[in-house]
Design brief:
single chain; 219 residues; Double-stranded beta-helix; eleven-stranded antiparallel β-sheet; four-stranded antiparallel β-sheet; 15 strands; globular
């Protein structure tokens, strides 16, 4: 599968070229344009329960779009929010994505909904994550630009700025400081990552943008 990413870091746009009968699975509504040689079907990876978990727990679509054609072809994908489009090649490993970050993947990549544990209930990222594993291409997106960090130690991240990370990293939920700082600094709870691995951070958060806009909507 050949691919090209344009428009980063502000308005990422992904174009893929499929070989004959090659399949790509796409987040619902992400296709912006395509050649007439491709066919579209809907697929529910993992069956009914997996689809329900992905929709209501993982923040993604119940169905995914399945694109392929006997002669191959091309299509372009645009995420629903402005930001970067990223690519990661999976070679039998696993990668974790936060809700709303999945864009597309090869047919051999398995997408499962994973419970992040009781600690994740206190994170703005949500209690459920998307676990991506297998062999193939994985495409994901952010809100804002992406900062890629190779961690060997610890890193404190404000809730809401995470896009994805490798499962070799562990994290715990903690306050931004003492009780006073946590309650009144505006930072609230943070996630302290530890271990060795890679994580992707986004420079903007949808929650903060929504809060900023709310002030202009009041009559």
């Amino acid at each position: 599968m050949k691919h090209r990413i344009d428009g980063n870091p502000d308005y990422g746009d992904l174009t893929v070229e499929l070989e004959p009968n090659e399949v790509i699975l796409v987040e619902s509504g992400a296709m912006s344009r395509m050649g007439s040689e491709l066919d579209l079907k809907t697929r529910m990876p993992g069956g009914l329960m997996s689809g329900l978990a992905r929709k209501f727990l993982g923040g993604e679509s119940f169905f995914l779009g399945e694109y392929q054609g006997p002669q191959g072809g091309w299509l372009a994908l645009s995420p629903s929010t402005p930001g970067m489009v990223m690519h990661r090649r999976l070679e039998g490993d696993t990668f974790l994505l936060t809700a709303g970050s999945f864009l597309a993947c090869s047919e051999d990549v398995e997408i499962r909904t994973r419970f992040g544990g009781l600690r994740s209930l206190f994170s703005k990222e949500g209690a459920f994550l998307l676990e991506c594993s297998g062999h193939g291409d994985l495409f994901f997106n952010s809100y804002g630009a992406v900062l890629e960090r190779e961690l060997d130690g610890t890193l404190i991240v404000d809730n809401g700025h995470l896009v994805g990370w490798e499962p070799t990293l562990d994290y715990r939920i903690r306050g931004a400081g003492g009780i006073k700082q946590t309650l009144f600094s505006g930072e609230g709870l943070t996630m302290e990552f530890s271990g060795k691995g890679k994580l992707y951070l986004q420079t903007r958060t949808m929650q903060e943008t929504a809060s900023w806009l709310t002030g202009y909507l009041r009559g």
